[in-house]
Amino acid sequence: MVGQSLPWNARPTWLCWSGGKDSAWALRELRAEPSFEVRGLISLVNEKNGRVILHGVRHTLLQRQAEAVGLPLRFIPLDWTSSRGERNAALARGFGEVRADGAACVAFGDLFSLEGRDRRLLVTADSGLEVVFPLWNRDTRAHSEEMLKSGLSAWVCSVDTGSLAANLAGRRFDSDFVAGLPEGVDPCGGNDEFHTFVEWAPGWESRVEVEPTRTIEVYDFAFAEIEAADGSAPSRIDPFSHFARLDRVRRHVDLHIAEDLNAAVVARVAAMSRTGFSRYFREHVGMTFAGWLAHRRIERACQLLRETNDAVSRISESVGFHSERTFRRAFHEQMDCSPSEYRRKALEE
Predict the structure, then answer these.
(1) Which of 193, 208, 228 is the endpoint of a domain?
(2) Which residue, of 195, 228, 261, is where some domain finishes?
């Protein structure tokens, strides 16, 4: 709905986003409906490797899609080795945080699977979110034809080898692919026979050029490794904006920055063990929690030096340093100047 004015009562909506054709088409349908205001996308990823749960595509490629459609993207990381109950609890927390941020609805691109629908309703039951299925009960052959006629461009990124040949992973999703599907296989893969990654769909501001580079067979599935076609390195994303668990940690730190914030305390906020949180934080942020916290405290100190006339000693205490001497040393290490010099330069600019 880019460029359109919305009615005052349009419901703030987040769409669960796999990066596939049905996600892309669900977005198109929601944007065409004035009663919904799509504010962002939610993707479920493996917390150990950052790949999409459904088909193994890297989360950085989904970020490129989000940029192409002009929406923020939030990740809900899941530990696929945990129990179903633990995964459902993680999903419920993630959707609850979206609700707390002002969402009224969450949308899914499911076509007809009652089991899938029931699963979505279960994990959102306590969130207070209205659950919508904009593609529900469509004729899937007509649906696939409509998408292809529109110019939607996608690759088949995974197949269930119990239903399809492994060499179909890495094929274009086009009319030839659909026509060649065996009898009993849904034209849209509505029974999870295959999944896709979209390069472009109507309404996108730009194209996400990708190409399959190799096929990997794991158990009963074949996955096509999808890479950026231009060979460019994945763009760096802000993990705190995209991973709900880290977003929760940052908010807690910002609210309690003057307090003693050790890893054990913050691990409870992240709903993880201390060891698990320390490993998770380093993997996704690229530094230890203690190192990041020190940087965060200095960033807040810089803001206070620019915006207030508070004494350096008071600022030191307000950002969680136990002594002014320690604060001055940490400040100089990070900013290459003293707090007083920083304030003077800020006033001169």
Answers:
(1) 228
(2) 228
Q: Pick from 47, 121, 52, 41: which is nearest to 88 by CA?
A: 121
Span between the terminal Cα atoms of the chain, in Å: 40
Which residue from 39, 29, 16 is spatially nearest to 117, judged by alpha carbons? 16
Query: Is residue 293 left, alpha or beta, with left meaning phi > 0 and alpha meaning psi from -120 to 50?
Result: alpha
Q: CA–CA distance from 186 to each of 82, 163, 164, 181, 191 (Å)?
A: 30, 10, 11, 8, 7
Q: How far apart are CA 163 and CA 132, in angstroms?
A: 29
2 vs 295: CA distance, rounded Å: 37
d(CA 163, CA 184): 9
Buried b (16+ CB within 10 A) or exposed e, 123-145: bbeebebebbbbbeebebeebbe
Output the pLDDT for position 1: 37
pTM (2 d.p.)? 0.70
Cβ atoms of 170 and 185 closer than 8 Å: no
Q: Which pLDDT tens digit goes with each residue over 309-338?
A: 999 999 999 999 988 999 999 898 888 899
Q: What is the dihedral of CA 97, 46, 87, 128, to 10 degrees?
A: 20
Distance, in Å, from the CA atom of 35 to the CA atom of 333, rounded to the nearest integer, reads 52
Give, as one character, the DSSP assignment of residue 120: H
Give the residue numbers spanning the domain of 307. Answer: 239-348
* The residue count for the chain: 349
The single-letter DSSP state of residue 203 is T
